[in-house]
Amino acid sequence: xxxxxxxxxxxxxxxxxxxxxxxxxxxxxxxxxxxxxxxxxxxxxxxxxxxxxxxxxxxxxxxxxxxxxxxxxxxxxxxxxxxxxxxxxxxxxxxxxxxxxxxxxxxxxxxxxxxxxxxxxxxxxxxxxxxxxxxxxxxxxxxxxxxxxxxxxxxxxxxxxxxxxxxxxxxxxxxxxxxxxxxxxxxxxxxxxxxxxxxxxxxxxxxxxxxxxxxxxxxxxxxxxxxxxxxxxxxxxxxxxxxxxxxxxxxxxxxxxxxxxxxxxxxxxxxxxxxxxxxxxxxxxxxxxxxxxxxxxxxxxxxxxxxxxxxxxxxxxxxxxxxxxxxxxxxxxxxxxxxxxxxxxxxxxxxxxxxxxxxxxxxxxxxxxxxxxxxxxxxxxxxxxxxxxxxxxxxxxxxxxxxxxxxxxxxxxxxxxxxxxxxxxxxxxxxxxxxxxxxxxxxxxxxxxxxxx
Length: 453
Hints:
By secondary structure, the chain is α/β, with parallel strands linked by helices. The chain is built from 16 helices and 14 strands. The chain has two domains: about 35-220, P-loop containing nucleotide triphosphate hydrolases (Rossmann fold, 3-Layer(aba) Sandwich), CATH 3.40.50; about 245-450, P-loop containing nucleotide triphosphate hydrolases (Rossmann fold), CATH 3.40.50. The strands form three sheets. Strands 2-7-1-8-9 form a five-stranded parallel sheet. A five-stranded parallel sheet has the order 11-12-10-13-14, with helices on both faces. A four-stranded mixed sheet has the order 4-3-6-5. It is an enzyme of class 2 (transferase).
C-alpha cells in the first residue's frame, strides 16, 4: 500500500487477483480469481493440486484442458483431459474458442473458454494447469488470477525424480529435462508469475501454496456457508420476507457514505441526523448488532469477517439494511422531509459485489455518494486512539492493517464507479470535525434541496 494513504485519486497498487496477505479477493467479474499453476514435468504439481483437493474437496475445481494426444492408462475423458482429434482442436483454435494453446511433445494442449466459464462458479476456486507459454497467453487474454510457477530445488533433483518414475525412455527423459530448463528460464520473465514456489519438501511447499490461496478459499467457504444457511432458514427474523425497499407509502432518498476506517463517517452522520433529521444506518453497526443477537445463524460468519477485516457476504448486509429502512418507514417515528426520509447509509457498498447486489436486490439508487478522503497515517492514529475506549474487536493494529488493505483493494474500485457515474462528492476528511461538517452541509444542500436550510 502506498504512502499516499487511502485515496481515490491515482492508480491502485493492488492488481486484480492479488492476495499478498491472504485477504479475500474478488475479480472484476465478481468471481474468485482462478489459480493458474505451471511447472515442468516431475516437479510435483499434481501432488500439490491433489493436496488442495483433499483438503477442500469440490470447493476447488480443476479447469480440464483439451488435448489431441491419446489417453494414458487410467485417464478418464472429462476428468484428466478432454481428449479430441487434432483436427477438432485446430478448428477450435481457428475459431477463437481457446484462451491458450500450445504444442507439447508433438501434441496439442489448450484451455477452452467454455471450460473456464463452466468451472468459475460463485462457490469454488478454479485451477488452471498450463505451461509457461499457456500462462503467457492467459495473461494476454486478460484472465485475472494468481499465477504460480512450481520449480524444483535444482535440475539434478528434477532429473532424479523423472528417472525415479521408471516409466519413460531415456529420449523422453532428456526431452523433458530440456523443456524444463526452458520453462524455468522463462518463468523469471517479469510480470509473468506472481510467485515462484520451490518444491523441495512437499508438505512445506503445500503450506506455502495454501497461504497463497488462503483468501480465495475463505471467500469460497464463506459463500458456501451462507448458501447453506439461506437454504436452511431464509432471513426473515428481522421483520420482512424479502430484500426490496417498500416504496408503497413513500420514496426514500438514499445517500451512500464511504471512506476509510476512521475517516469520520459515523461522526458526520450523527451531526447530519441532528441538523437535518436524517436517518443514519451504519452497515457496520447493523452487522455488529446481528453478530451479538442471541441465536443468530450468521453470528460466527460475521464475527470472522469483522475480526479479519473482511467483507461480509452481500446478501446478509443488504437484508439488514433493507429491513432497517422498511422498519423506519413503517414506524414513521420522525416527521421526514417532503419526498420521503433521507437515509445516510454509512460504510456501504464496500465492494463491487455489494454494489451489484444492492442494485439488483433492493431497488434503491443513491442520489449522492459522499467519500471522506483521508491519509492512512491520520486514519491509523484516529483508530488507535478510538480503540482505547471503543471496545471494538477491530480497533487494534493487526485488524486495522487488514481493514486498510481491504479498503484499498475492494472499496476504492467502487468509489471509481461512482466517480464515473457523476454522483460522487469528495470531502476533505483531514480537516477538523467542524470544517468537514460545513463542507458536507454545502454538498447536501446543493444535491438534496428537500433538506431545506
